[in-house]
Amino acid sequence: MILREITDGNRDAILALRVAPGQERFVGSVRRALADAEEYPQANPWCRALCVGNGPVGFVMVSWNVRPEPPNLIGPWFLWKLIIDERRQGRGYGAEAVRQVAALVRAEGATELLTSYLPEDGGPAGFYRRLGFVPTGEFDGNGEPIVRLALS
């Protein structure tokens, strides 16, 4: 899997990615994520398509080395969005995306990668736990628990 920049040439294919029914409440759409990136430039959004072969299987967005301003701006390294297309879920692409993002931010000097999630049945809590994320005891501006992955 390769993390590719979003360009005019691949934007439509990335915007066509959809999560499985019922998952929208946990992560939303790529279109909404890109709108959030434009609305919150202070979060220094870093967006990439997750590609296998020539096609996208998912999307990732990270707040890249920001000055934290809790509870609304978490960082410095925050996994803001992770979307795997419904037809590609269950193949390890989400875990691989997190591993690649973790390696990239570690190379930038990060000691931890943070994220948050909606703690409801069917949500991503187990996914993040399996990857090694642990609760920080803090919450974001939406009341979601913040979890951290140690990178050292």
TrEMBL record:
Asked if the keyword Transferase belongs to this entry, the reply reads: yes
Is Transferase one of the keywords?
yes
Keywords, A to Z, come to: Transferase
Q: Which InterPro entries match?
A: Acyl_CoA_acyltransferase, GNAT_dom, Sper_AcTfrase_N
Stretches that traverse the bilayer = none
Please report the stretch or stretches of sequence annotated as the N-acetyltransferase domain. 1-152
Alphabetically, the GO molecular function entries are: acyltransferase activity, transferring groups other than amino-acyl groups
Q: Name one Pfam family in it.
A: Acetyltransf_1
Name the record gives this protein = GNAT family N-acetyltransferase
Recorded source organism is Solihabitans fulvus
